[in-house]
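Before the break, one more example. Copy the sequence into your notebook; we will annotate it together after we see the structure.
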Amino acid sequence: MTQINTQWLLAIFGVLWGLQFASSSEDNEYMKREHSLVRPFQGVGVILPHWDFLGNTMVTSNYIRLTPDLQSKSGALWNYSPVMGRNWEVHVGFKVHGKGNELFGDGFAIWYTKDRMQTGPVFGSKDHFSGLAIILDTYSNHNGPHNHQHPYLSAMVNNGTWSYDHDRDGTHTQLAGCEVRFRNVEYETFVSIRYENDVLSVSTDLENRNEWKNCFVVNNVELPTGYYFGLSATTGDLSDNHDIHSFKFFDIDKSITHEEIVSRSNIIPNAKTFEAPREHKEDPKPGMSNAKIFFILLFVVLAAAGVAIFAISYFKDRNARKRFY
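Here is what the structure looks like once it is written out:
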């Protein structure tokens, strides 16, 4: 009996120790439901717990479609709980797909910003935002010195005073970026955004290997507490389905005091290091089209012919008058 009781005690102690270890691990890094979205999504079509949506966003049990594959659509999804932790990591599962093989757009953005639920020209959300934008751009708007291959993933930190230069794909204000191939694949794709001790690192899992591939790491990025997460997408003349499959927020703060939260809330978003700036070159002035050149040449030829005919007629008439006299 004593041996059995001892075995039971050891077993119970092992279970309790394991629970304590798991709890300790969760305290260091755990998913917070109030900032996360996990399938199956509840409140289909009407209410989404902890999140608001607007525009053309459609909620199903398996995915949240920010835009359908139709022209001139825009949609957004915003968490309504401010993030009070200093260090965090976000995993976003998504699929971007559509009928277009060569022409498609425009892409979507993941936001950590001061203002929420505001529409605008930057992938369906407001310009001159305050906070962080992770942009997954599927269409190249510029073919000159600011061009890079698309789809393209980039980051921008804004203090509310800068404008996102959509015509040049944001190359003047991006922290860093990398080319990404996520469109029209058969499986779900992922992006990881980790912010820890003022270091922003972004990784992707785009090949269905369950492995993170580094996109970029930027040091000395200061973001305040108390901002909101959101996602938005837009289509114009070109379109795609922009589907969100999951949004998982992990708190990686080991310990943070109330004083730290308050002090961090007063930070103005900024980044002390940027990607090496590209030379700002204005777009070349549009040249004349072939049709315009053709009509100009035609006008010159007709004018020359008219002058020649007039000269011939004039001299003929003059010679005729001389013979008459």
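Residues 6-28, 276-287 have pLDDT under 50 and may be disordered. The two ends are 153 Å apart (CA to CA). Try to locate both features in your own notes.
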